Amino acid sequence: MGMGPIKEMLKQNLWAKMLFAMILGVLTGLAVNPSAGLISQEIGTLIGNWLALPGKLFLSLLQMIVVPLVFASIIRGIASNEDIEFLKKMGLRVVLYYIVTTGLAVTIGISVAMIINPGHYLDKTTFNSYREDSLPSGADQTLPDPGITNIPEYFVNLLPSNPLQAMVNTQMLQVVIFAVIVGVALVSTESKYSRPLLELMNSIQSVCMTVVRWAMLIAPLAVFGLLAQIMIQVGWEALLGVAAYVSTVILGLLLLLCVYCTIVFLASKMSPVDFLRKIRSAQVLAFSTSSSAAVMPLTLQTAQEQLGVRPAISQFMIPLGTTINMDGTALYQGAAAVFLAQVFGVDLSSTALLLILLTSVGASIGSPATPGMGIVILATILTSVGIPTAGIAIILGVDRILDMSRTALNVTGDLAASMVMNRWLGNRN
After folding, report:
1. Residue 143: helix, strand or coil by DSSP?
2. Interval 351-384: pLDDT, tens
3. Per-residue pLDDT tens for 23-50?
4. 360, 108 contact by CB (below 8 A)
5. What would the pLDDT profile of 370-422 be if each residue is shown by its tens digit?
6. Residue 104: which of 273, 281, 258 has the closest Cα?
């Protein structure tokens, strides 16, 4: 009888279902974790793989339609503003906003790590065992060269010479740039020629959202399985070794969340409690999947239906933000770089800190919105300031937990940005 209200709540709210599944997943994972002594490592891995199956199917289903959805949404978002001057104004303000907030996020990450000094709390015996290790063979060769001579070539490569190949390889930044060019070209083309293509984009978007609705039916099951598998693999032991580092990053992310709530309040007078209540489904799903690309359809829906952002703004801002607005990732990279510098005794000068700031901002823009990419970008940043990349082994065990947290902040940042632009760009329909 007492379960009635809980059943009703789970029936009504997707976020509540996912939160319940998340807690259940963590408890199941900890119970099945080999360190609990109930089962062996092999059996634990096998159970984890089966439990994660719905989650893997869920992610594959969403990743399958994310490219056509991004492409269609951006074109529709741009084409609905049939004014080139307005598009110029929007583009300039969006880029400026993203650069400023990403820079602020990295500054928070660096500052929190320098105040708390998490590197000094690391158990030196743990550190020595990691120090002898290195990254997997060949990892250093795959890192991008951060040299300044490659910057012009980097900008040239952003323009897709083969848009279909960019779509096949899920190179989201190139797909976004191609969609922006097509959208602006459509606005500049006579209506009789542009209308058929716009109707096609509308149809593609509708079909994609239908697939999203199907995927959402298994979202709670997916969340349960993914969280259970992570806790089977990680357990509490990995967290305890670098608890100060994990706490530092999470504190930084909470401060960034306060910044977002303040920005939203100043832009739209929406209280932080209201804002967080309306976006909680997207946040919980982002936390569970570690992929802002997979959550993008729900983020888009949340912006329009919960926050009242006009489709003309949201259809441009959310896909673009998913690709280039990675504030949570940028903050984590700043904090992790300072932490590893403290561990290795590397003295960071003001120039090195500025280089970390600039590299984090640049690297987080355009990084693929997929799980684990933060580590690859971090290796680039460490290389640029002379911190041994072998240090990544120290934080690799807990990276998935932090990846989940920073992805939730990335999605929050996209929604906050869409609200700011909704207000900043006037009361156009």
Report:
1. coil
2. 888 888 887 877 666 555 555 566 767 877 787 7
3. 888 888 888 877 766 777 788 888 888 8
4. no
5. 555 667 678 777 877 788 877 777 777 677 788 889 999 999 999 999 999 98
6. 258
- Identity of the amino acid at 192: K
In the chain, domain spans: 65-214+235-424
d(CA 352, CA 349): 5
Class of domain 65-214+235-424: mainly alpha
Q: What is the pLDDT of residues 315-365, one digit of tens each?
A: 888 888 887 788 998 899 899 999 988 888 888 888 888 888 887 877 666
**Contacts by residues 30-33 (CB-CB < 8 Å, ≥ 24 positions apart):** 30/231, 30/235, 30/236, 32/228, 32/232, 33/231, 33/232, 33/235
What pTM value is reported for the model? 0.75
Angle between helices 399-424 and 327-344 (to 10 degrees): 140
User: Which token pair is 386?
Assistant: 């002379």
Residue (of 282, 250, 281) closest to 402 by Cα position: 250
Distance separating alpha carbons of residues 280 and 303, to the nearest angstrom: 12
The alpha carbon of 89 is separated from its chain's Cα centroid by a whole number of angstroms, namely: 26
Question: Distances from the Cα of 4 to the Cαs of 10, 17, 297, 302, in angstroms?
Answer: 10, 15, 31, 28
312, two tokens: 């003309």
Rounded Cα distance between 115 and 168, Å, is: 44
Q: What is the largest CA-CA distance in the chain?
A: 71
> In percent, how much of the chain has pLDDT > 90?
16
Q: Could you tell me how many residues make up the chain?
A: 429
Selection from 135-139, 150-154, 170-174, 308-312 with the highest mean pLDDT:
308-312
In this structure, are residues 269 and 348 in contact, taking their beta carbons and an 8 Å threshold?
A: no
Burial class (CB in 10 A: 0-12, 13-18, 19+), 309: buried
